[in-house]
Amino acid sequence: VQLQASGGGLVESGGSLRLSCKAPTMILSVFNSNRMGWYRQLQGKEREMVADISGSGIAIYEDSVKGRFTISRDNAKRTVYLQMNSLKPEDTAVYYCRSTWNNLWGQGTEVTVSS
Questions:
Q1: What is the mean pLDDT of the chain?
Q2: Which of 47, 86, 91, 97 is most buried, judging by how many CB atoms fall within 10 Å of its CB?
Q3: Which of 50, 45, 47 is nearest to 62 (CA)?
Q4: pLDDT score, position 28
Q5: How far are the Cα atoms of 45, 60, 64, 100 from residue 71, in angstroms, in the given order?
Q6: 39 Cβ partners below 8 Å, 6+ apart?
């Protein structure tokens, strides 16, 4: 079972990106019952949680992204999204998705925000 992250890229400050994380081979009931999260790792720093969502859709956010980022999930598609608006240069990082099922991580997708 793998998580497939996509959607990163280069964007100007103030712009938007939407990240996607798919779990195409995960058993649907497993996907639905596990939390999904987005994390990011800035160069030289530890990975930090950005946003997390329960199977029922309850979300929590890191303080610096509140009001700018929105995490959502489509359980039928086994996909979690991270809509990132009003991006800032300090959001530049490699973003990873994670499932609490077996602490499964996807590959990173790089986000670069130019000033």
A1: 97
A2: 97
A3: 50
A4: 94
A5: 23, 9, 14, 16
A6: 47, 48, 49, 50, 95, 96, 97, 98
